[in-house]
Amino acid sequence: MKSIKNQADLNQKNILLRLDLNVPLENGTITDTTRIDKILPTIKYLLEKNAKIIILSHVGRPKGKVVKELSLEPICEDLKIKLKTDIKLITKNIREINSTDLFKNQNEKIVILENLRFYEEEEKNDNAFAKHLASLADIYVNDAFSCSHRAHASIFKITKFITSYSGLQFDLEIEALTKITSEIKKPITCIIGGSKISSKINIIKNLISKFNNIIIVGGMANNILKYQGYEIGKSLQEDNCHQIIEGIFSLSKKEDCEILFPEDVVVGKNLNGDPTIKELKDISKDDLILDIGPKSIKTINNLIDKSNTILWNGPAGYFENPNFAKGSIQIAKKIVEKNNNNTIYSVAGGGDTVSLLNTIDAVNSFNFVSTAGGAFLEFLEGKELPGIKALN
Fold first, then answer.
1. Are residues 222 and 335 in the same domain?
2. Is residue 368 over pLDDT 90?
3. pTM for the full model?
């Protein structure tokens, strides 16, 4: 895979830059700019090299139809402010655009084409659509790792028709994920949460053979507590998980990987309720498990202390209510403390984990924080991502 940072001659080259600017919008206002902020270094790098940039991206799921509320206009305005430069949003039908339509004068440096998913050919990985996109530029750069688990026209087919490179953010993502899956500095610990254990089973199985410890928290842990014979009350749980959990523990013994789960919990009677710390044996039928307790926090933090590498995907509880955010916040603070001492390599990923880190301003205190979601998880499963395959 070739990186754009190793391409010397970009002067006056038209660069087709695929980004993931799929940020949350409410009434035309961006509510979280993390994904935009992360790709600014790539844009600035290309501008320094005197390249002209054609940005490709999508927002939402318009399913091949033009949906005004899913226009890239708010993102274009945000980029203008952050880059302190004029950026033109081209709303003309992409199928009718040619390269001469893009930069009308010498001073124009960046244009954005309207939402790719307004065109059904994008998600269908259409050959002709990909070829047309490629005809608009000299070089293609994929800096949308978070979209690279999709075999879409602007991610996969396009590389057949144009010289293609990875972007700076893409490179960082691969480097971070490689360090925690292939070039591991042990001991290595994974903290994994989420609501469904079935959705993370392939990740857990793939990591058991590589990791020393896997700590299961969040809604997933409720199923393990139930499997262990504990009452979990009205807590979030998933049906038919007995065999999955049995398989996890069996494989972990074989691979000498320790599986840990909460020793105590914080419960409420509802999501907005008051917190009560409980031992596992004391959970009532009307309790909701919403966080890990102080014993669990201490055990996890002790393991983090002993680890050289940490992967975190999924908060420890219902952090949206501050009453049940303590477990997640304490874990984050311990990792930040280790990071500040340069005694750990830390990677976090997943939408909820990123949201949590944003609430305590800790995103920049990890070695790497991924906003990639599905691509992040599929890489951890050991799957081949179409976007990586295409660049190779």
1. yes
2. yes
3. 0.89
